[in-house]
Amino acid sequence: MDIAILNSIIFKELMPWNFVPGSLKAKSELIRKVNAMEPVNNAELKAQVRQLITEYPALIKWLDKQPLKNETPITSHIHSSILPDYSDATSKYYALLVSKEKLRLYNAFLIRSNTWSNKIDIVYHTTIALKNIKALAKHTVKEIKDRGFEETTNVSSPLPHFVLHYLKQQLIELYFDIQEVNKASLDSTQSIEDFYLTELQLPITSIIKLEKKEIEQEPTKNNGHITQHKFSFGFTGDKEKLKAVISQLCNQIELLNEEKCTQDHLFKILTAKELNSNLPQIYIQCETVQFSYIVGELNKTYFKKFTPTTIERSALFYTTTSQPMKAQNLYSSKIDNPKTKEEIDNIINHLK
Fold first, then answer.
1. Which of 10, 69, 172, 238 has the maximum number of C-beta atoms within 10 A of its C-beta?
2. Residue in 268, 267, 180 with CA at minimum distance from that of residue 219
3. Is the pTM of this model over 0.90?
4. Helix %, strand %, coil % for the chain, to 5?
5. What pLDDT is attached to residue 157?
């Protein structure tokens, strides 16, 4: 795995200590453009990274050479942690660039990983990727120490201080994401504690906890390699009853925007044995809190894996504003008593 863009933050043209204040207006415009749309697939994500490095021809040339599968939906990271807060347009630019490129690298690795057919290839390429990420993380820690920066940042921290800490934490998350993908094939793995203590040479007090998201995809094994891109919502109930429930939810609470999708489309997706980008897209019309409640109630009994996480990963559901449905929005919208709760409960009970 080549991490040229992230490397350039420490060694080349993106070094924050060489930032030219006169380019602040251009950076603000880049932030506005990238924030205007949430990428759905890897082509859109790569295009956003390209926008962010538009001032750096060598990096654009490198990025354009990276292989791409346009229709591949974006897979979210496995790990997350508390990141430093940006304080102005410049620090936000760096945070956006590091986050987007980290997500692009992770998805590019997933795509490549699924092409390796034997354990030797899996172990070799995964080990190289982990080695490159670890090396940059160690250089980042060294830079922090050499510049005399403290172990934490605040709103008044200088730009290099913020960028170095933000990069370090994102590299740590990426390292453990990559390790997790092919964990079953690796002879040994590293804990977060050992990574800090033995690799980064940092004290245990500096460890920032990683939160691991639940992977709800159905793994399939191929010569010891776990492929995680095939999954379904795992419907376990009566299909005819499900059709009736979808119809009632559409008629009584306007579940779907039926100008853009149909009840049959939703039924097809909910009962599909394998979710993929060839399936129809679903546009939700009801309030997010209502949809979040419906998802939770259905998943209690009638589905194995119909959750906010799998909904996001399917890349098939869209909000009332035609934006991709995100797991975090559904989780944060979850309440016990949404509008029309009684009607929803009565309708879902027809699945019994």
1. 172
2. 180
3. no
4. 55, 5, 40
5. 92
